[in-house]
Amino acid sequence: MKVKVLLFARLRELVGGEAVELELPEGATVGEIWGTLQDRAPALRAYPGPPLMAVDQDYARPETVVSDGEEVAFFPPVSGG
Amino acid sequence: MFRIVESPIDAAEVLRLVSGPEVGGIASFVGTVRDTNAGKRVSAVEYHAYPAMAERVMRQIGEEMTRGFGALRIAMVHRVGRLSVGEASVVIAAGAAHRHESLASVAYAIERLKQAVPIWKKECYEDGSEWLESVPPGAGSEATD
Q1: pTM: predicted TM-score of the whole model, two decimal places
Q2: Which of A18, A33, A37, B11 is the most buried (most CB within 10 A)?
């Protein structure tokens, strides 16, 4: 399945890009996608600990299963206001 | 109205949006860029957002303001891009039947926004810049208050 992955803030700078499209096995979880992403872009390993995660613009957990065509996002703790 | 914008926020316009015949009290919060943070001189702040999710989470906070505090009319606008010291980064306004409801709902909303709305702040100093990341509740002070 194809999943669009968005990165924000510090993560976006580490990778030097804002979005990647990944081809993944059916049933992949958000946590597994983060692992795949770190393999593809080792610069992400410089980020300490797991980031916040979202699927289709809702906060998700590492064990959340992702479906074909969904939008996955990874980002640092927020600091708006 | 829940929106991420790139241009300056007109606070008076936001207040107009929450006015109405059923409203007896309007409260608002305006967050502005401060010239120092953690002892460092700040020259500007860059805000970045995940706009679609940010507006969605702001709308959810609006529902909580209505359910939990009785806010009747709500507007929440956060600006992104490079802001100078003194400029407004966020405006939240709520109209309710009575003052306590509007004041309490706005106080709640800015705390929730800082915890959950996907927006990030990069502070610019004379000698570089730095991403700020929120800390667990109670562990430290925040930058806009």
Answers
A1: 0.91
A2: A33
Q: What is the CATH number of the domain that holds A71?
A: 3.10.20.30
pLDDT tens-place string over residues B54-111: 999 999 999 999 999 999 999 999 999 999 999 999 999 999 999 999 999 999 999 9
Give the closest of A6, A10, A77 to B50, CB-based. Answer: A6
Is residue A48 less than 8 Å (CB to CB) from chain B? no
Count of domains for chain A: 1
Q: Cβ contact (<8 Å) for B114 and A10?
A: no
Spatial separation of the C-alpha atoms in residues B69 and B110, rounded to whole Å: 14
The shortest C-alpha distance from B19 to chain A (Å) reads 23
Domain membership of residue B8 (yes or no) is yes
Task: List the single residue in A with minimal CA-CA distance to B55.
Answer: A57
pLDDT, tens only, A29-64: 999 999 999 999 999 998 888 899 999 999 999 999
Q: Which residues contact B142 (CB under 8 A, 6 or more apart)?
A: A81, B114, B134
CA A35 vs. chain centroid, Å, equals 9
- Which residues face B5 on adjacent strands? B79
